[in-house]
Amino acid sequence: MELTRLEQGGKPVYALAGKCTVEHAAALRQALLEAVSVNTVLTLDVSGVEEADITFLQLLLATVLTLEQNGGSLRRHGSVSPAALAAARVAGFSHTPKLANFFSDED
Amino acid sequence: MSDVDPSIALYIEETRELLGELEQGLLELETNPNDTARVDACFRAMHTIKGGGAMFGFEEISRFTHDVETVLDRVRTGDLPVSRELLSLTLAAKDHILTLLEAPRDHQNAHRDASDRLLASFAAYLPGGAATAPGHADDSGESPILRPASEESEYACPALPGPPSIYWVRLRPNPDMLLTGNDPVRLLAELDTMGDMHVLRHGPKPALDNDDFDPERVYGLFDILIATPCAVDNLRDVFIFVEGDSEVGIHRLHTGILRAADLDELLAELKGHHDEDLELAGNRLEAALAAKLAAIEAAKQKSQTQKGAEQRAAPQAKAPAAAATLRVDAARLDSLVSMVGELVILQSRLRQAAKARDLDAVTEVDEDLERLTDNLRDVALGLRMLPIGSVFSQFTRLTRDLAASLGKDVEFVAHGGETELDKTVIDRIKDPLVHLLRNSLDHGLERPEERQAVGKPPQGRVTLSANHSGGNVVIVIADDGRGIDVAAVRRKAVERGLVAPEAEPSEKELLDCIFAPGFSTAAKVSDVSGRGVGMDVVKKNIEALRGTVELSSVLGQGATVTIRLPLTLAIIDGFNVMVGGDSFIVPLANLRGFQERFVEGQVRTVDTIERMGSMAPVVSLRRLFDVPGDQPGYERVVITEAEGETVGFCVDKVIGRQQAVIKSLDDCYRHLKWISGTTINGDGSISLILDVPQLVRFVRGREDSRLHAGEPFRTLPQ
To answer: Which of A74, B40, B148, B656 has a CA positioned 20 to 30 A from the CA of residue B121?
Structure first.
């Protein structure tokens, strides 16, 4: 799992790639916490996610909640990788109101 | 239409056309189910209708067509076979879309129940529905039927026969499930391979910065509704490794199909109740399902009642207003524009000739103008001409549905669909044709067993044909059924006082009685016909179009109805003739020539004249219409032909050829059937346009009455 900070049009985009599974859940949470602490609006690129389990989906949901508590929001850059999209669909996260927009174009 | 946004009006018009194409395509697929190009065309039509519906605010059309499009897509990709049941259902969907299209847009929800009822039937053909696929027609050559799900399933488990079941699955994972190597996502992905799955994830949602949030634990629970043909044990097997630690509940909620939107609505009932135990949540879900099923049942009954009422009301229903727009061949428009250009040039030439007072040049312009006006008239009238096939195609569906409802096997054949007719005539001829076709199917054609008993093929045949004949279009509806029992017609006619018991009317006259109001020889009245209401209306409608209708029959071999209609209702070519100070137009279509006669002594209303070696009846218009003034000693005879008869009309003078722009008679003169209208002449006077066939009938009727009254007048030969 890698979370890389990129610049797109002068704005930060956090690209998440590789396996986003339970082994990397703690590290991902830490990386997201750091990203949330410096961005009210966080833009994530999940097109490189190769494997996703429930921890990835829960972390996305948790990130939205924290951002919204601080008056911010979660945005997406690029497409959703097939692995992430399939996980979100079968587990009902793509229809969870907080994440519906994040997955909307792809579902 | 003028109040409607032009883009919406265009959508409505295009959708009407697409629905027409769809219907034609579906009917053709019935005879040739392997026509993949036709399947593609049907899918594209539905796809376009759906897309436009969403774009132009026809939300109900868009919602309804979504599932229909999915089913057609499955047919297109070979997942579903073309079956008669599916075609019937899609035809019903086409009708429903038309209803939605014609309903006021703010009342579309009123049709939602009917949409849901149809969609419930379509659900069997959706992924996960009972109509599984991959079927090809079997070797027996019979039409493909729905394959039982057990034969082949698109899901990762053997499918049980019969309709699918809807299960409610609740998974409340142990928070430490991940530590045992299990993952709810993987379990749900496996479950997803067994049916059409809808998931509600709810329950605790810790925020990222919540100190208690452990990203390696599982939060919340999953309520799932899955429509599956698989056995419950297959579903249980998915959770076999987590059953001990996690809460897993699997309950069959319903056997049968529900729409995806219904499943989502049911799941939404559980939102906010994640703390409830299985029993409570189950009761909640079952109550919601019972309410949903009751609503669907009520909608079905309401729709059936409504449909029945509509069917009963159909024969009396008013003809739909003719569409206000017309598609015109671009070549015809180009030619019209080019003629208008020519007209401008002629006007300029006329001005120059007038300035120069050059009479020869004016005459030349007049000749050119006459030629141009003729062409312009033909092209302008051509703009209103439509192929009658546009109506014929609708009858294929009518006969198909009607034959099925009457339990008859009928082949419908249409010829001459390319024959063009004025749009107004086409719009108004549809209802009479529907009535005649219904009669043919209901009373004319026998049931297959009756046909076989008399040595006929079991399949009956109804032929509808159209062709040009003179200035008319002749439409013929013929069937090879039992024909009309003239003796029975006579009995009924005598009973009703239409024919005197001792009279010897011809067969044609007896058959004409069928067009009398309330006349029916049908032993029993059906939903389709037999009440004796209608044939008089058919005749009245056709006559209102300046047309005629005739019936002929051979007992045991079938009946034929022949309708003759004028090509257009707007302008006719004719000859202007004068009787005293009265001016008449004889339509060119009926004109066969001119003769002359010298009159001596008393002039009879009906006389004879020699024409080409045989005697032809002639009618003195002066006597017939009591035209004031002296009878000239020399008369012109206008020879006409109507319905195969040659009849001459004596007039004082023949003025010449004239294009008559028809102005309808006022209602108070409508009983004068032998006048098809009036026209205004170049000098501002008025001419009456004679309807020759009607005039001949009028004279014959009048002379017959005199004969019956014992007056020694001649009559026209029958």
So the answer is: B40
